[in-house]
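Structure, all two chains, one model.
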Amino acid sequence: MGQSRPADQAGLRRGNLALLVRTLREHGALSRAQLAVRSGLSKATVSSLVTDLETRGLVHDAGVSAGGQGRPGQLVGLRSASVCGIGIDVHVGHVGALVTDLAGEVLWQHRVICDVPGIGPERALDLLAELATDAIRQVEGRVGPPAGITVSVPGLVDTYAGVVTFSPRLRWRDVAVADGLAARTGLGLDTIAVDNDANLGAMAEVAGMDVTDLVYLTGDYGIGGGVIAGGRLVRGSIGFAGEIGHMAMDPLGPHCSCGRRGCWETQVGLGALLHACADPDDPVRDPTLDLDQRMRILRARAGQHDRRTLDALHQIGTALGLGVSILVNLLNPAVVVLGGYFAALPEWLVEPIRNQVVAHVLAPGAGGARVVGSRLGFTAATTGGALASLRRVLEDPTVVPPIQQQVDEEAPA
Amino acid sequence: MGQSRPADQAGLRRGNLALLVRTLREHGALSRAQLAVRSGLSKATVSSLVTDLETRGLVHDAGVSAGGQGRPGQLVGLRSASVCGIGIDVHVGHVGALVTDLAGEVLWQHRVICDVPGIGPERALDLLAELATDAIRQVEGRVGPPAGITVSVPGLVDTYAGVVTFSPRLRWRDVAVADGLAARTGLGLDTIAVDNDANLGAMAEVAGMDVTDLVYLTGDYGIGGGVIAGGRLVRGSIGFAGEIGHMAMDPLGPHCSCGRRGCWETQVGLGALLHACADPDDPVRDPTLDLDQRMRILRARAGQHDRRTLDALHQIGTALGLGVSILVNLLNPAVVVLGGYFAALPEWLVEPIRNQVVAHVLAPGAGGARVVGSRLGFTAATTGGALASLRRVLEDPTVVPPIQQQVDEEAPA
């Protein structure tokens, strides 16, 4: 409905280039004629645009179509190795990186255990810069240059400035992550983005699902929420939406890292789980061990019906369910995705959550809301970060410059 | 970004007609040249579209422009009396109607006190049909025909079918409101819509504000929430979003109409307030008195520093604030609008709410969220209903047929 002002020619062309790239990403290789039908553009326009994308190395010949109804035609395919996207995440106990190609395939991932609140933001930024440089070096030769780097952080992020405004769990206030990373790596500031971990996780999860309304929960020491409503991320008026970890659930509850009492994350955060299921000298409470490893130990104990572990998981699941029921009453999502550590333990968490949701949600059958464990686990935020980095190219393919040697060949000597 | 398939000609023309109507509604009368500049359409297209709108009686000559930079030109203005929109609302203790013209000016409103849960849905539908017929008769001659009627109901609504799925407060389950009203009034089913009261209230409130992220709370026996995020209403996956009255706030709290215990509305609904501030034989608890009148009595008592009234308002405000802080943490709205009975008592409710919000919201300064009383009070839902009815015309002016006498004049004898 409606009509905006006529776009300028360059903007229109950028939009059409983006449309072709997205169409190829969704449908796989297509002939120029098929691209014209799917995009609504003329065949002449499609041919010209495809040539442009070839110049930038974003598409290539992908064989001949197998026939079907039309004449066989030369297929155009996305060159998934043309660029890569990098996601970096910062947790309380580790930092991580993940690199994907344009098609979203994971090329490399790595995690470094460290006490992020303990080392302070400057040293943490050093570590992130090393990780970014390492990521680029690791995939060099296999894939084109990074379209961008997106850093995921648990807490309030000023995405416009690339600044972490406040992260109680990291003990960071007003940390200029984008500036700090650009200065340390030499990468352009326009290629570095910073976002909230739950927002990135939600974007990664919804990309693989056929739903428009989704709530994603980060299961970590802190708990964040990423909300997709009507197909779009809910950011709020100044970008601070999703701080569900600090819902006041119990005025007399334990003290929280934010300075308040009884926040939801004091009941369901990783700290609450570990405290409930193990003594301080237990390996699952050893911060020098990788989280995946500690989760495997817990899974094994739960599988062997260890009473303390099962009781702890039931307690966490019930408290989780009470908070989830608030989110479901308010947002009526099609699915609630349990991320982070929750994703390692769905067999024991989903049932108590569902019981609470059915008990407390007004809509019959909880309004159709499903509760599922994340497919991505602890990598949701880095996957979402890599995806967000690639979005720069998907929204404007001209950010990828024409390939130099082609320009050299064509230029007069 | 991107580009959809070329729209068909009729669809394109409808979209352009709608663009002109919205432009005139926003900016007031404009010359054809100004309309061309603001819409990005050619002058010839604008002239043809304006003629079409004249034929439908939607615009008229509005004098000559006062000059300024350009040549003086004949102004085109919206004919606000061309059509009207009707909103009807159903509460526990009354039903109401409100009629506006195309410009949103209120032409008539009326409220009938009645025990809606007591009389049952069939008799309530009779009453709504009488009210609708009365509304149309009352504005006849002053304004054109109704663009539509939108019925506001507290509870879960299947807007597609026009059915109230579940309203605990009204004690309605699967009530076919649109069908029932069409059968009783003879109005076309395509002109009758049914929606949740909080959604309609939120749309009415946001229409008068320069914000994209807003939470609207209905203050009534039940409490509902209407959420606008990024400029769009959050409906959820099957339209059941906003059921915040049933957030579980106290597992040992009072029994709720929904069958559960300790729902937020048992703490902050109108019933809770009246119970806390007056004995059963007090006039403020007399359901045969109009709510506005009862609120005036309460305001007078609070103004005279009556201890019981002030204590009750502080208790309600504090419990309200705790729930509001959950909404603000999750949604980061620019503004939280207190509707219904809350809007009659902002001097005593806003401060305890703000105190809780500042105490419990993670973002510094509560993420900029303001808490304000509604401008519309108990008429927000009917105002939103009238607006929603008019939206049919604003989105597609061709739903208004050409005026008959003009057609007669032009037709050969």
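Chain A has three domains: 9-79, 84-201+380-399, 210-378.
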